[in-house]
Amino acid sequence: MKILSTQRQKVLYTTIFATLLMAGISAYSSILSQQASIDGCKQHEMDVAVSIIQSSLQSEMNNAASKASVVAHLPSIIDAFRAGNREQILARLLPAFLIQRDRYGVNEGQFHTAPATSFLRIYTPEAGHGEDLSSFREMVVNTNKEHAPKKGIEVGRAGISIRGVDLLKDADGYIGSFEVGMSFMTVLDYLKKNTGFEGGAFVDNELVSRVATLLPPPDAERIVAGLRNVEATDWNVLKTIVTPELLASVTGVKTVLKTVAGSDFGIVITPLQDYKGVGIGAIVAVKKFDVFQKESSAAVVRAIAFALLQVLVLAGIVLVMINIMFVRSASVQESSK
């Protein structure tokens, strides 16, 4: 009987160890699998944000180009531009452009004579008449030089905009150009609405300071790694996440997972290029992944609970089998006596 009891203990301990080991492996594998799935969902959300940023930028370029084309082909505007009549142009365009600004993110409208001399700024009609912009407004210079519409991103006196430039001409030939500039907030607001990411546009501070002389000086906190935040959906969120390390050497799309104050964030950094393809900054988007964080914690709890359940069930089954085996063995030994 003593031998049977010792054998029973050895089998019991071995079984318990094996059961715990199997349950631990099962729980660990389950946690890894769940974490990989959650990480995949996070990456998918960041990839979607990148796609929306890039497609929205292109869409707004097309939007700006189409608006500029409409104005550039209005006969009454062509006649007034040829006559040098700023008052007539303003009377016809300003009411509509105020609506475009307030509803659709149009923040610039400007006429130029060749090569890039400011004739009229729709929103600031008293500013910059006759100013030569050719040293920094290459889109305008090339539009008038090549007699071909252009679209893209460029910094002007009033700041950075997503622009479209088109030509005005009549029977006597080319007169000049007209451009429409779209605010980056159209892109950032669309991003937030469709993905929940807070977004901000960051541009080379030296470039903006040198060219955008109509802008007020920025707050010091809005300059990060030499880039100035010019627009943002929520700066208070961005400033806690965006660091010089994140914005250093932005040469390609970057997606980062970062923990700040115990919370997980997804960060997307998309390079910002001017119409020539030269890097001038980045669009940064961040989102708090608290839902995924909670799901990850819940997955760990579920895996551990399931492992414990496995241990209890298997241990119960093994105990019953051990009891049956050793009871029968003891009965056989008793009967043989």
Automatic annotation (TrEMBL):
The chain crosses the membrane at residues 12-31, 303-327. The keyword Transmembrane helix applies. Keywords: Membrane, Transmembrane, Transmembrane helix. Pfam families: dCache_3 (PF14827). It comes from the Bacteria. InterPro entries: dCache_3, Sensor-like_sf. SUPFAM superfamilies: Sensory domain-like (SSF103190). The keyword Transmembrane helix applies. Residues 43-283 form the Double Cache domain. This is Double Cache domain-containing protein. It comes from Candidatus Methylospira mobilis.
